[in-house]
Amino acid sequence: MNPADSRASGPAGLDPGRVVQVLTTCRAGPGRRGSGYRVSGHAVLTAAHVVSDAASVRLRFLTEDGGTTEVSGEPVWADAAMDVAVLRIAGDARTGPPGAAGITPVRFAGITRPVECEALGFPRFRLRPDRESADGDGPTWYRDSHHARGTTTPLSYLRAGSLEITVEPPEYDPEPGRSPWEGMSGAAVWSGGYVIGVVSEHHRFDGLGRFAASQVKRWYRLAPDRLDALSALIGLPAGADRLTQLPLPPPRPPDGPEQPDAPEVRKAAGKLAHDVYEQWHREGQRRRAGDPFPLAVRFDCTERNVFDHWANIRRAPSGTPAAPLPLDGRLDRIVDVYESVPSRRLVVLGEAGSGKTILTLRFVLDRLRARAAGDRVPVIFGLGSWDPVTTSLDDWLCAQLVRDHPFLAAPADSGGDLAGLLLDEDRILPVLDGFDEIATGLHGAAFRALNRTITPLLFTSRPAEFGRAVAANGVLREAAVIELADLTVDDYADYLHRGSRPVRDGGADSSVWEPVLAALRQEPRGAGAANVATALATPLMVGLARTVYGGATEDKPSDLLDTEDFGTPEDVQDHLLSAFLPAVYDPAPTGRGSRPRRRRYHPERARRWLGHLATHLHDLDTRDLAWWEMGTTMRLASRMRVVGLLAALAFGVTTGIGNVPVDLVATDLGIGFALGRGLMVGLLHGLLAGLVFGFVYGVVSGGAPREPSRVRIQIFGGTRQTRAKVVPRALLGVGFGIPVAVVLVLVDRFVVAPLGFDDGLDGGLVGALLFPLEVGLGAGLVLGLMAWLEAPVEIGSAVSAADLLSTNRKNVVVHMLVWMLVIGIPAGLGFGLVPGPVGGLMPGPVRGLLAGLVFGIEAAFGGGLGYGLSFTAWGQWVALVRMWLPLTGRLPWAVIAFLDDAHQRGVLRRAGAVYQFRHARLQDHLARVSRAHHCPHRPGAPGTADPDGTGNCPRPQERPDSGNTCRTHTDGPDSGTTHGGAT
């Protein structure tokens, strides 16, 4: 056998250069020969009986040229019951056997069904004479390697707990008194690139074609300290639930022939994978998901009758029996469990706070860490915003991708955008979170949409909503279903202990949680202990409890055992939810000279602001807090008034102030006339602009929030798609600008002039005709030019709310500058080319420069800012969120800074371009408390008007999705709040 050829063509995982022949010199009796495998730079795995009673051990490696090299070995760990041992290679591995520098860790697995396997060792029947021996008395003997290939099953040797390896037997037994397989002991048994056992013995009664192996998953029966030592030596996973289970599901069919746009797909998918990983990795760090260690979230195949036939889930051929899949495990095995489902469709059920969100986060991060080129990119989508009746699944996924990753709005070479291309090329793995948050009555439509195409997915829901949907519409085809288990005191005891302040009495290491934990263990049926145990059955509540009692607070966890204050588990949960914000917004001052890491907000103000945001989301029936939707729960008439008022101020003030220097320069009527005319023109023009822009905002928005622009302004940066918008935009500007200019002329001629403020600069009939043309053509030129300059957000851009807001703000600023140049330059030229001084005050060029500057500023603030307020998401944000809501005390002035701070404190999380509350239960709680304090329409409260028009009370609201319907509110526990079917 040529080792070089074996290395090139051998199965994945098994490397002939790391196979070892173990030669043992015993203290008493004859020596032994066995096999082994180098699992690290210094460690060799073999069978314990091969090196028992060893006086010395030599390790013989094969070399590339067919020779051998030997080094010394030393037994450092052995267990006779499991028949496993680890040898340490003497000396520095970097200068030891060949190939030491490239040693990579081996992977271990268990088996659940019969699998193919292989082992490479040195059995006795491979004994050969060495013809090149220099010994004149006769040839020496050596054992050549044997590559045993066969099958193994987990159902044989059940009592012994070993694996039965079935292989092609030797043709004859050379010595009836000895096994021909002698010397094969210690060889690693491989399957699919994983080590599943170590050859241990040959039972002669089984014949020559079978021998036994110590199986890896049995090693976890060792004592914890022994297992830890073995794991440290050979890289064995810490728990049996972390072992890969074989056989692996069939791989995804290979991609078809590479198309011309394949590099475009790879680049977009790679960028998306990087962005998604960075986003959720940072989110996990902020949530302290693994500090000091992750909670023991467990799951198993659900016992509910809510999933498809196993034959469909396994995609088994017709007539083939299909056994259930082993789907039990912990959080760190979710990727392995998902990969073990041949259909790649997995549903995760769990009650509120049971860990569904943290499971999806772990799934996405673990899968992205192991992602290879061409693999699907897992992306989390919150299902609460999907209306399956009006929007197809692909269209909704595409819109969500563009919202959270603006670079995916860039046009693809083959047509459409990059988001649609990735979906068409099957490069997205949808992680659909929160099926229960889809509006009531739409679950059936969602099921039908998901079943139209059997696409891989991970899907989460609360059990009750999913069960009702299955009962009414049938199962989710080919989807396996697992359910998260409740936490027990053993699951979170150490987590709470290590996360709270220490209490040392007499030298014992204790914590403030010890009385509670002791009661939960010793008196689990006591009323107080039972309430606490039920309340802490979910990771959400355990995390809240750790936060609430982890700082310098006078409250003690033992208070939770008091049944007078906390008579039910819901009382305990409500207390933890209520105490969470005061805990994270601790107002205690920092020490002298210290620098606070974040802004300081008073807990009560933070609660009020967050309560408004929670109520806002409740009214919009969503979990996504988007900056461009904040303030849109105000009545449309109120929003029109606010936008109109700001547009009136912007246009009126700039027009009034701009008229003063024009009249001073171009006329000799004096400063009094200039000031009076400026005031009159500012009031009238501002009133007109306010009415026009307010009306336009109401008509254009239709009550719906303005979507943010996913383009940036770049010279020569437009694409074919954006340039196609030039003519429609220009016509819109002309059609809007000419009527407005005509009305302004009429106001000046028939209102301002009769009041005695005619300055003689209207140009007569010619001016009355030219001014509307100038304004209309200027507006058309501005909008057309802006469409020409638009380019998709570049692929390297960030996806945060602040970045998207900044991009939209820059677009509006550029818009104002273009208005200034387009209107100001013609005005300046017109005035500058008039021969001679006007009014004897100033020559033409200087007069033209001043006039162009004045008219340009008026156009920028009157036209550009008015356009921004009426037609852009940023203008809506400025008018409603940066001004009106802070004025009414609903939000702070620095809104984005407050949201970022809440994100840093763990109150909010960020999902792409939007924020979400840390958990839906917290959002519902804050909304309920906010309504209880501020809603005059709650049961038992006197009916009063909505003074600020914010729409925070459950009164008729003018929204496109709800018309004038009234959303009812029920006082009670958090779960009583109606929210699209979520409780």
Automatic annotation (TrEMBL):
Entry annotated with the keyword Metal-binding: no
Record's keyword terms, sorted: Membrane, Transmembrane, Transmembrane helix
SUPFAM superfamilies in UniProt: P-loop containing nucleoside triphosphate hydrolases, Trypsin-like serine proteases
Transmembrane segments: 642-662, 682-705, 726-747, 767-791, 812-834, 849-874
Region feature (Disordered): 241-264, 930-983
InterPro entries reported in the protein's UniProt record: NACHT_NTPase, P-loop_NTPase, Peptidase_S1_PA, Peptidase_S1_PA_chymotrypsin
Bias kind Pro residues: ranges: 247-257
Protein name: NACHT domain-containing protein
Protein species of origin: Streptomyces angustmyceticus
